Amino acid sequence: MSLACAVIMSGCTAAGSVENLLTPPKLTEEQNAIYREMINSVGQGVKLRYPKSGEYRSAFVLQNIDDEPGTEALVFYESSNVQTGEGALRLKILDKENGKWQAVYDLACAGNEVDSISFATLGNSECTDIIICYTMLNQTEKAFSVIKYNEKTPERLYSSGYSQIKVCDLNRDGQQELLAVTTDKISHTSGAMLFTDGENGFEKLSETQLYGGGGDYIRLTEGKLNEDVTAMFLDYSSGNGQSGTDVLYCYGNQLFCPDSVGSNPAAGIISRLVNDYTAEIYCTDIDGDGFIEIPSTVPLPGYETRTLPEQLCAVQWYTVSNDRFSAEHYSYFSGKYRFALLFPNRWRGVVSAIPNIADNEIVFVSYNEEKGLKADETTELMRIRSVNKDDAEAMKAAGSFKIIGESDDTLFCIIESGSYKTSGLALTESELENSFIVL
């Protein structure tokens, strides 16, 4: 699960009664009791801070974080009363004793804003680990801390910068681990670390190099490569219209990332072009077989010599087998019209596509170097038209076409040429049914 930022909820300023302070939102009776104890402990001038994403969005997080019965309260705040040199963002931990909330510890946070807070039981530990993710002052860097609370004292087990983080069972041992992906913008390197907690305490099980360089890891997808291998698929952006994917899985407790780019990242097979024709594409189960495929772009026939902004690309979908990337599907992929068409082998290298924006169509044509890239009665095979269901005129025109798919707001129609139906390139009904995919 990727940790994407949500809309920042505004903080609140302490002034006057609690009801006036937080209206809206209105505090519950228990939250009022917690807040009053905070004021007794910290003093006035408190600004509550809210996690921006994740399951817990309240400034008051109630959770049992120790081995004693009952819940503790964790409250993020800023105070005008902190000492010079101390971090402005603080975490107050309160415990309930004899039915009353008591402030027991105040902790300086490892960031400037709270992105999320979550809880996990890692490894064979019976204790709850607190995982807090932060954004830094420049809003582009992130950090996380793992904290254990024991005998009314929090212990910071680990802190580091990160790009993506996830609790998962990547090594399939039946226990949860913490996976952290890091990026160093200065050295243009990236890596992944796997942590556990148990008999030896909180420890790093493994780490490995990734191949995204100094790129930004923007999406993390958990899925399967095959029946036996669970993997993390890490989509990254390298900037300048280039993207890629790293695949991460385990041998026992050892993390492994197959090299998708070779010695020259610019020439890597698992890389993608993003331009006006090709939207950002992420790894997905494109063929519906239950396993994740990894996208890479390659110019369609006739577009190879055009500049990068002018290239219309096919998407080559890969899987990983025996630690090597292997091609599985070759397709046209339309982010604009939200459909994909898997090409049969006989189309490879001899069929291309031409956008017809005026009619919301993609025209598929036969191609050879002598004729070049054009759509006429000698080259056109078929058109796939996207029809907005709210467009009455377009829907009326679509009545004469063959409908091959639909989404909530769009119909997809195919318009076949006469020569296409008699050529060796024509798709059979079953081929079309299995190759056309609504995104």
The major sheet is characterized as: 6 strands, antiparallel
Count of discrete structural domains: 2
Average pLDDT figure: 88
Structural class: mainly beta
Salient structural properties:
single chain; mainly beta; 2 domains; six-stranded antiparallel β-sheet; five-stranded antiparallel β-sheet; 5 helices; 47% strand; disordered N terminus
Overview of the molecule:
- The chain has 2 domains: 1-117, no CATH class; 118-438, no CATH class.
- The protein has 5 helices and 29 strands.
- By secondary structure, the protein is mainly β.
- The longest helix has 14 residues, at 29-42.
- It has helices at 18-21, 29-42, 392-398, 418-422, 429-435, and strands at 12-13, 46-48, 60-63, 72-79, 89-97, 100-108, 113-120, 129-135, 142-150, 153-161, 164-168, 177-184, 189-198, 201-210, 216-226, 229-239, 242-251, 254-256, 271-273, 294-299, 313-321, 324-334, 339-342, 351-356, 361-366, 380-388, 402-406, 410-416, 436-438.
- Strand 11 and strand 12 (177-184) form a beta hairpin.
- The protein starts with 11 loop residues before the first strand and ends with a strand.
- Strands 1, 2, 3, 4, 5 and 6 form a 6-stranded antiparallel β-sheet that branches. Strands 15, 16, 17, 18 and 19 form a 5-stranded antiparallel β-sheet that branches.
